[in-house]
Design goal:
By secondary structure, the chain is an alpha+beta fold. 53% of the residues lie in helices and 11% in strands.
Amino acid sequence: MKLNDLTFYDYFRSSASYRVRIALNLKGLQPETVTTIDLRTGEQAASPYKAVEPSGLVPSFQFGGKTFGQSLALIEWLDVKYPTPRLIPQDALAALAVREIAHTIACDIHPLNNLRILKYITGTLGASEDEKLDWYHHWIKTGFDTLEALIAPHRDEGPFCLGKQATLADVCLVPQVYNARRFDVDLAAYPAICAVDAHCQSLPAFGAAAPE
């Protein structure tokens, strides 16, 4: 379905944008316009994008004369407006479990390792490349220890994080695993995470959303 009059501000390697691309694909939705904001050149911090989205972050949706950001907020909006298939279950307890995993990724892991933080560590604080990687690996492993404990008990219930259906948990997990592999994090200690990721990667909605 074409989302008329909706502009999606995207960047191919932004894991937050990657989440939104997966969600759109799972729901069979296509924004009318997709505009790339190149984070490598600093375009996100300059006009005209900064005038559109004050945070200067991607992803964002522009429609109805307004712009809205934050990937989880955008996905929850999509889930309310286009509820097939649901990414957040209607059942309150099931929804809580999904959000627990999603927020572990989006609130505890990703903010510590995104591009602007890594640039600040090496630029302003003067950390070396090795020190930056140590920082990255530490917070990935800390977060993945939690995720493995949350996902592993559900492996007999289905191929996704929490059973037989893809949810917001899987939408957040796959981009984070992609980033971990990109920075050469050893994932041998996380078989449940890797199994879910492998299954998701075999599905067109996830594959088509990948940065490549």
